[in-house]
Amino acid sequence: MKMGCLNGTTISLSCLKLPFPSYPSSFQNVPFRRTIKPLSAALQTSPATSPSTTKAEDQGARSHWKAAIDFKWIKDNKEAVAANIRNRNSDVDLELVLQLYDHFFNLQKEVERVRGERNAVANKMKGKMEQFERQRLIEEGALGTQLPLLCLLGKNLKEGLIALEEDLLKLNDKLQLEAQRIPNMTHPHVPIGGEDSSMTRKLVGSAPEFSFPVKDHLELGKELCLFDFDTAAEVSGSKFYYLKNDAVLLEMALVNWTLSEVMKRGFTPLTTPELVRSSIVEKCGFQPRGNNTQVYSIEDSDQCLIGTAEIPVGGLHMDSILAETLLPLKYVAFSHCFRTEAGAAGSATRGLYRVHQFSKVEMFIFCRPEDSEHYHEELIKIEEDMFSSLGLHFKILDMASEDLGAPAYRKFDVEAWMPGLERFGEISSASNCTDYQSRRLGIRYRPLEAPVASPKKSKSNLAPPKFVHTLNATACAVPRMIICLLENYQQEDGSILIPEPLRPFMGGRSVISRKS
């Protein structure tokens, strides 16, 4: 059934009510002022944001990019997608997405029909005809008796088509804003539920035993003059810090040791931009979530501070088609990371455990779809080998569905024993995002195998491109690793033993001791 006709009766397009969003005005680039604040706050203060806008509109109204979402697959697998949304505790309105898709599909067919009729009239106008016949066609426009059409808003087919195309663009924007919030599908082995439902996959090593009272990293750091939180709070605010003396050398040692270990496994080293466009943050699946966003934005610009090198590395091959022979592409990237840590409070998050700025080494892989589970296992094995070589006691968790975040198909977390905190604390994670990010970033590869020959002649024998799979894993989050090393290697005299793998990167030193 065409949208312009109901039971053979012509209806007016103006009677068709479709839900279109209101859009905030574009952010102006003001060169003399750069105030940092959470991205959600920047959206909330946009003067054109209507109180009636939906959550999706408020979160993504600045985005004009389009994700290559397979709407037909979503529609054909509606029940599985709906169950996945429930399992992830997401508030996405799947029914609205499918309704918008149906509207879009029908309106798109109507646009194509009207465009064809406009072209037919244009072709007649190009041919030889009597003057009175040409004038009649001009006057008929969209109301010609030869070509029955909808009662369009304009006086001719060209104006009507323009109006239809504008409606189609608006509807596509609305559809994208809602559909981009649908989370990735979930691996069948992922536990269903919240964080408490996560399953321990492996327990490695054993906790150290102490014959003296154990100190936490804050007390150790104060006695050894390793950090200064008080001055940093005056200079920058809470949850900032200065590293001092041997703590600086320890950070450099951790970073350089990590890079050297990961590079041995075929990874290419990178340093990355630490400011990226907000659209890149969104394409990687880090949608701001109201007041609890973890993203800092730069006011009056479209840029954000990165919370992880995953974001700029993910954008490295954006909008490109890679040769299959290049895959897998493996990168190890060093960057500083910035997070608002909204909602984080309590003694369990004090000190270096949860801070606004920190150094991190991140692993990232682009690969063929059939290889992503293999490389996910490779990433977690690299993490296990590295943390084992440092003598840490840790467990590897298969994270539950509600703790995956939107992009991850499956995620493993590593939690290490922190004696001063008297608990395990997260030090790393490894995620397989399948094609969730690549469909948004436009990253594809060209298979080597040509398509099967068909009876129809083809202009090209090239295989159609496919979306790559992306994976990421933390090789070293420096503050958490410093906590582990200080608390696990503390000695009765207050000194800290340096694990053997790090000693060459600490100038051969084996201990951090008190300064006179």
From TrEMBL:
Gene Ontology molecular functions: ATP binding; serine-tRNA ligase activity
Any GO BP: seryl-tRNA aminoacylation
InterPro entries: aa-tRNA-synt_IIb, aa-tRNA-synth_II, aa-tRNA-synth_II/BPL/LPL, Ser-tRNA-ligase_type_1, Ser-tRNA-synth_1_N, SerRS_1_N_sf, SerRS_core, tRNA-bd_arm
Residues covered by region (Disordered): 41-61
Pfam family, one: tRNA-synt_2b
Keywords in alphabetical order: Aminoacyl-tRNA synthetase, ATP-binding, Ligase, Nucleotide-binding, Protein biosynthesis
Gene Ontology, cellular component aspect: cytoplasm
Positions contributing to L-serine binding: T308, R339, E362, N472
Protein name: serine--tRNA ligase
